[in-house]
Structure formats: structure tokens, C-alpha cells
Fold this sequence. Notes:
The structure holds two protein chains of two kinds. Chain A is mainly β. Helices cover 0% and strands 51% of the residues of chain A. Chain A has no helices and eleven strands. In chain A, β4 and β5 (45-51) form a beta hairpin. In chain B, β7 (62-67) and β8 (70-75) form a beta hairpin.
Amino acid sequence: xxxxxxxxxxxxxxxxxxxxxxxASGFTFSSFAMxxxxxxxxxxxxxxxxxxxxxxxxxxxxxxxxxxxxxxxNSKNTLYLQMNSLRPEDTAVYYCARDxxxxxxxxxxxxxxxxxxxxxxx
Amino acid sequence: AIxxxxxxxxxxxxxxxxxxxxxxxxxxxxTDLAWYQQKPGKAPQLLIYDASHLQSGVPSxxxxxxxxxxxxxxxxxxxxxxxxxxxCLQDLDYPYTFGQGTKLEIK
Lengths: 122, 107
């Protein structure tokens, strides 16, 4: 079945880095744009970033530009989010999500992972 | 960035009620709007895309309307499984932005 599984979260000190991963299965990963979305505890959803199906086009939330990098390895069916200079306000559940249609770029679908928790604390 | 203002932030209703949630964009977004439902501890689920298109598998009691800056999500007859939090999302322009959410509770 179609599935996304995130990993890489954990507790990290402010100023440190973390790389999240999202492994896809059950669909042709290389055909779909992919997103990261986060949700701080008890808060709403915040869109983080998108990468095109081939990884050549990437866009980011204003609040994170310069501190995060989205990337993908289509040979491994894996999406990444490299986060640097982490701040306490980056504490959240991070979800990866698939685009709705292949070849497109921009419509989030109902295909989301279960999320990985990131806690930034000293 | 385009700001999305969602209202109300919370709503109490009864089984069988008709409820409407609204979302207003700070600038025109054509029909590039989606609605999501989220239950506690779960990932969001897509209900509506392109403002009014029902995602496959979503019950027909959910409907969406609007274009430009004003949008609505309507649930025609609330069922027990509909009590959740609902978010709108503009996907016209980067960065994409969500509304702040509407928590739908049982009266």
C-alpha cells in the first residue's frame, strides 16, 4: 500500500543540526513532488518546503529559508529535510507528504507519513 | 506571504447539524484552496481540493465553495466521526499557508 515513513527526529540542543528522512513505498516516488509540513505542540499546521519530482525545484517557508534544505534520492525512494541552527521554536512533529498528482507541483494529497517528533531544548 | 484567516476558531455542534467554516485569503488565490481534516494524533486528511472538488473516498456531506478570497467548507449533516479540527490551505503561491484551524466539538 501507499506509505510514507519518517525518521530522524529526536531531542537536539539549540544551534545543532538534524536530518529527517522519509521513505516512500507503494507508488512511483520519482513521479511526485514531495512536501514537508510541521505542527508545533497544540498548534496548527505550517508548510515547510516542497521539492519537485526530480529535485530540481525547491521552495521554502519564509521563516525557515536559509536554515533548511529539502532534497531527495529517487534511487532510494527517500525524501530528506536538513535542518541547521535549530531553535526551540522548531520543536514540532514533522510530516512528509506527497503531491496529489504525478508530474505536478503543488497540491498536497492525503498521503502523509505518521510524523517524526523534533524537540529542540538545552 | 498570503495570509489565510479561518473562522471560527472553534465550533460546538450536534449530530445532524449543518456547519460551515470559512477561510479568507489576504489576496486572490483563484480556486487554489484545499481543506483538511485532522484528528488527534493523526496526520491530516485531504477533503477538498481546488476549492470545490471532493477528494476520492470523502463522504458527499462535505462540500467546498468559493473563489478569489472567500471560501467555505460545509458539512451538511454532522456525523460522530466528523468531530475534528479542520484547516484550509492555499496552494497558489509559495510559501503555502494554512489557516489557523477550526476545532469542531460536540455540543
